[in-house]
Write a structure and sequence with these properties.
The chain is built from 20 helices and no strands. It is mainly α. Helices cover about 70% and strands about 0% of the residues. It has one domain (about 1-235, about 250-495, about 505-544): MFS general substrate transporter like domains (Growth Hormone, Chain: A). It is globular and about 70 Å long.
Length: about 550
């Protein structure tokens, strides 16, 4: 089995269809993307002991005590720290293990990702069953976070090498899956918890175990289906466009990981990702309360402020806000594919200029849109913003490949994801503290987000400057021919006799059948379509 997982045994031979690789990546990303949907568990977990009602902890129970207590329920703030763990560990593990991944190959990395992510869910189930929060944090937050990091970057280098003609589109397809994971996982988890709920359980630990089993099957299918192209491979009949060879922003050489992070280009792109994601995460984190507090009774046809609504009316408003959140997730996913694909034609730098310039205008105009009373204008504005948030994630791997070459782009991408870890803290902290300060200063809830929007717009100005500073990488940073040969030997890269054409598994030349390709896309398409349909049903409420 260990030999089967080795990178040299995943090198494709003649006849392999490169369109089998994106659904393999989706199998993994659609599973680990459930990290975005973990909030579906928070409310049930606040009643894990009380079952029908939460059993609050006493004032003498400290934050540390809550990690071990079995006599009172957890509250949502302490459960919410799981999100911070997810994205801090994701970025950290991707940065630390990216170099190993380039040498071990995507198949081995995918298997480790599956074991960590699903094993973390099993450990979390034990933690819920025994009411030990530290086990949940260790299981899903730390071990699962390592699975997130490896699973997220495992297909990047491979897809970019399989699609030199459409780098943005290829990474957009895979990273679209990470955004779509919560669309599938959240409604599935909700249905499972309702099915498992009983007089003695809220059904969370059983749901964790069931989802771990489902995810493990899908992730292993994806990991074992990975193939890497031989060195020098390119699609049959394709030659780089004449302009690409002379485009200094798209290199034909390669930078080693150990040097890439020392270049000014790396840190400019780090700032680009961090600031774009900080602004987007800020919106995602406050989307539901923001819509409710700004429009309040107007969402249900009443001229009432948020604090004037009855309990029943608050429930109606919350349902509409859930539709808004669902709609944002759809545009987040669509933006990952559309913007990344568009970047193949207009260039990565121009794409990010659009993100920051248009984003600045939309964020700055958001308060006026809110005060205008037009729900449609406000919703439309944030839907566009979310496309650019998702597009930023999907376009950055291709941007890195353009700047640093493809040899170690997966490892470089992993190192760059530390920007996501920082953004995962910066964005929510900025939004929450500014909003809280505004309310304590006596600003009405309907206007308390105005300053926040202007601050987020300011972050995008910083991102614009970072992108403006990106220049072609200086020649001194690139690997020499001897260094590149040595790195390819460490990475177990091999060249086939014919490096041109569609390429089969290592040791086999049997062409991939169209039925196999179509069947694999159906396998990932069915759950993705179901998730989109479930989200669309929620979003429809917004327009009633």
């Amino acid at each position: 089995m260990a030999g089967f997982l080795n990178k040299e045994n995943t090198i494709a031979g003649p006849g392999f269809n490169r369109w089998l690789v994106p659904p393999a990546a989706l199998c993994i990303h659609l599973c680990i993307g459930m990290a975005y949907g973990f909030s579906v568990f928070w409310l049930p977990l606040t009643k894990a002991i009380g079952i029908t009602a939460s059993v609050p902890c006493g004032a003498d129970v400290s934050w540390i005590d809550k990690l071990f207590t079995t006599t009172c329920d957890w509250d949502k703030p302490i459960l919410g720290w799981m999100f911070t763990l997810f994205f801090v560990v994701l970025g950290s593990s991707a940065a630390l293990l990216g170099g190993w991944l380039e040498h071990a190959g995507p198949r081995k990395a995918g298997v480790v990702s599956a074991v960590c992510w699903c094993g973390g869910l099993v450990l979390s189930a034990i933690g819920v069953y025994n009411h030990q929060l530290w086990l949940m944090w260790l299981g899903s937050g730390v071990i699962g976070g390592i699975g997130l990091g490896l699973g997220y970057i495992s297909p990047v280098s491979t897809l970019i090498k399989w699609f030199p003609d459409r780098r943005g589109m290829a990474t957009g397809m895979a990273i679209m899956g990470f955004g779509g994971g919560a669309m599938i996982g959240s409604p599935l988890a909700d249905k499972l918890m309702k099915a498992y709920a009983s007089v003695g359980s809220v059904g969370v630990w059983q749901t964790f175990l069931t989802m771990a089993a489902i995810y493990f099957v899908f992730m292993m299918i994806g990991a074992l289906s990975y193939r890497v192209p031989p060195t020098g491979w390119k699609p049959a009949g394709w030659t780089p466009p004449a302009g690409q060879a002379s485009n200094a922003m798209i290199t034909t050489r390669h930078v080693h990981l150990n040097k890439a992070w020392r270049t000014p280009q790396f840190w400019c792109l780090w700032g680009v990702l961090c600031l774009n994601v900080s602004a987007g995460i800020g919106v995602i984190g406050m989307a539901s309360p923001m819509l409710q507090e700004i429009f309040a009774g107007h969402l249900i046809g009443l001229d009432l402020r948020f604090d004037q609504l009855s309990k029943e009316q608050l429930g109606q408003v919350a349902a509409i806000a859930a539709g808004f959140t669902g709609l944002l997730s759809l545009f987040n996913i669509g933006g990952r594919f559309v913007w990344a694909s568009l970047s193949d034609f207009i260039g990565r730098k121009v794409t990010y200029f659009v993100f920051f310039a248009l984003g600045f205008v939309l964020y700055a105009y958001a308060p006026s849109a809110g005060h205008s009373g037009s729900v449609a204008l406000f919703v439309g504005l944030f839907c566009i913003i979310l496309t650019m948030y998702g597009g930023g994630f999907a376009t950055i791997p291709a941007y890195l490949a353009d700047m640093f070459g493809t040899q170690m782009v997966g490892a470089i991408h992993g190192r760059l994801l530390t920007a996501w870890s920082v953004a995962g803290i910066l964005g929510p902290v900025l939004v929450n503290y500014i909003n809280d300060a505004q309310i304590h200063a006596g600003v009405p809830k309907s206007a308390a987000y105005d300053t926040t929007m202007h601050v987020l717009a300011g972050l995008l100005v910083g991102g614009f400057v970072c992108n403006l500073l990106v220049r072609p990488v200086a020649a001194k940073w690139f690997m020499t021919d001897d260094e590149l040969a040595a790195e390819r030997q460490l990475a177990h890269d091999k060249a086939r006799q014919s490096a041109v054409g569609t390429a089969a598994t290592g040791g086999g030349d049997t062409p991939s059948s169209p039925a196999l390709v179509g069947g694999f896309w159906v396998l990932v398409g069915i759950p993705l379509s179901w998730g989109i349909w479930m989200t669309f049903q929620k979003a429809v409420v917004l327009f009633h």
